[in-house]
Amino acid sequence: MENHDQNKNKLLHLLSFSGNDKYLTIMGCILSAINAVLGFLPFFLYIYIYIYLGAN
């Protein structure tokens, strides 16, 4: 349980830097996660084209 509390404190410490604009920090994290997922898209498209369309 102590590890969970430490992670929560780190998040609260990070959000303390943002002041009144906490929503911008949260939005930035969400957009960063979306960017990370979309970064894999060319890899998955390559696999799809190479394996599924190339097998025919």
What order do the helices and strands follow? HHH
Strand count, sense and barrel status of the largest sheet are: none
E-strand count: 0
Uncertain runs are: none
Radius of gyration: 19 Å
Multimeric organization = single chain
Coarse shape: elongated
* Helix/strand class: mainly alpha
Mean pLDDT: 82
Terminal CA distance reads 53 Å
Beta strand % = under 5%
Supply the number of structural domains.
Answer: 1
Total helical segments = 3
Helical fraction:
over 70%
Characteristic key phrases:
82% helix, mainly alpha, 56 residues
Question: Mind explaining what this structure looks like?
Answer:
82% of the residues lie in helices and 0% in strands. The termini are far apart. It has helices at residues 2-16, 22-39, 41-53. The mean pLDDT is 82. The chain is elongated, with a radius of gyration of 19 Å. It is mainly α.
